[in-house]
Amino acid sequence: MSSPSFLSEIIEQLSAPERVFAVRGIRRGIERESLRITPEGRLSSLDHPRQLGSALTHANITTDYSESLMEFITPVSDSLDVLLAQLGDIHLFTMQHIGDERLWPLSMPCFIGGEESIRLAQYGRSNIGRMKTLYRQGLHHRYGSMMQVIAGVHFNFSMPDSFWSEWQQLQNPECCQCKLISDSYMGLIRNVYRFGWLIPYLFGASPALCSSFLQGRDTGLPFERVGKGTLYLPYATSLRLSDLGYTNKSQAGLNISHSSLPDYLTSVRRALDTKDDTFTAMGIKVGDEYRQLNDHVLQLENELYAPIRPKRTPRSGERALVALERRGIDYIELRTLDINPFTPCGVELQQLRFLDLFLVWCLLRPSPVLDAAEIERNHYNMNQVALEGRRPGLQLRTAQGEIPLRVWSEQLFDELQLVAQLLDRAYGRVHYQLALQAQHDKLADPEKTLSAQVLAHLLAHDLDNDEFGRQQAELFRQQLLHAPLQYWEANYFADEAQASLLKQAELEADDHQSFDDFLRHYLQLPTAGYVPCGTE
């Protein structure tokens, strides 16, 4: 389970005076999702506000599945302070331009009257805009809309070029650097699957949900009730990450490989190319109306539900999978962070510092290939922590047998401490050790976790999730309406909104291809061609 001697050796080498500064400059980006709601706590039925610009082409403000599900995207930054300032400015501008609506501050959705009340996101008349809406139409037919309005925070992470130069010298000077980078990120991803249960334990914030989310379904889970219509599990950390939440059981048999980038790409291509009998029966186009992009297991790469993804920014008109094949992994996207309901932006500085050191640890630590038995254990551990992570004496599974979560967590924190010391040496501060200590306190006292704080507040005041969410939403609304911009100048967002609307209009005017032809061309992936050196 542990390999502290190997980790100590690597960190000692990276801590050498001539190398330690190579660790500085970690690059991050944040994508935060949030539902627009009415003052009464109901899902907004209004269009995406035009004052915010085009959801299709705006750099920072867009929508996800639903017209009411906002997505805020920061630029890439090597400063956490800058990152949070940018995220705060995006929230501030949005709040000033959505009238009396609020932003729902929880991961699990507010009261929803039914599937029909969830409007699909609209992106205009261009072929690419119509395709994005049709993709969501396919998700609706395949899985229903309720799951799609669960919200989270995605953390994009990459190491600086300076690190990879030193890492190559330490690991394999003869290896192509592009291949080394992709191999290293795949190792990081495998370790997140092994140890990622730690994230919902510390930061899960969805131990309860509105009963409307279940739509009368019997889950078989021993829910208890608080307030008028809120269901909770006493020791849950993140219902969002459980099998009840944002998961897709139909993808359980996909066998997506994380052994290497070529194996990953091959297995994703297989899912994109394989027809599914259930989806075939739904029909692709019935009469003149499309129901889904295709009848394959995955319509697009994005339909693969995963706690972490390897990423490469596509060029114009390029598929995400093809970008990875041609140029290798550039960054990873961690998708297991619940919205923090105690902060206006859904995430705060100490969380991000912990994610930094957790992901660096996952990168530096040995990461053998996952076999079927370990994959099953990893899924079990994640689901157990999501459903009852704070249960005293909770046991998790390892190759050596069961181990108490508390004991295993302490072992992992001993290793994380080494990484915190390395990062603090590199930056000349003690920020990472302090961030680690703040999370370590939650091991001894689970009541300090976000999920416990949320549940304690609900139970102490006999509150519904709905009422708690509305209270926090109004609090954050008042804070944001009266806050100054921290990073951008006052005209940035107005200019970007106008530019995005013009860009959407240009796309619509330049479309001369029929939608059928566009779709056929877009969905036809080029022949597989992974180039390990990243040269085309």
TrEMBL record:
Top-level taxon of origin: Bacteria
Domain Glutamate--cysteine ligase: 12-385
Any one Pfam family match given in the protein's UniProt record, by short name: Glu_cys_ligase
Organism name: Tolumonas osonensis
Name of encoding gene: gshA
Alphabetic keyword roster: ATP-binding, Glutathione biosynthesis, Ligase, Nucleotide-binding
GO molecular function, one term: ATP binding
Taxonomic classification: Bacteria, Pseudomonadati, Pseudomonadota, Gammaproteobacteria, Aeromonadales
GO CC, any one term: cytosol
GO biological process: glutathione biosynthetic process
Catalysis performed (reactions): L-cysteine + L-glutamate + ATP = gamma-L-glutamyl-L-cysteine + ADP + phosphate + H(+)
Pathway: Sulfur metabolism; glutathione biosynthesis; glutathione from L-cysteine and L-glutamate: step 1/2
PANTHER family linked: GLUTAMATE--CYSTEINE LIGASE
Sequence similarity: Belongs to the glutamate--cysteine ligase type 1 family. Type 1 subfamily.
EC number: 6.3.2.2
Descriptive protein name: Glutamate--cysteine ligase
UniProt-listed InterPro entries: Gln_synth/guanido_kin_cat_dom (IPR014746), Glu_cys_ligase (IPR007370), Glut_cys_ligase (IPR006334)
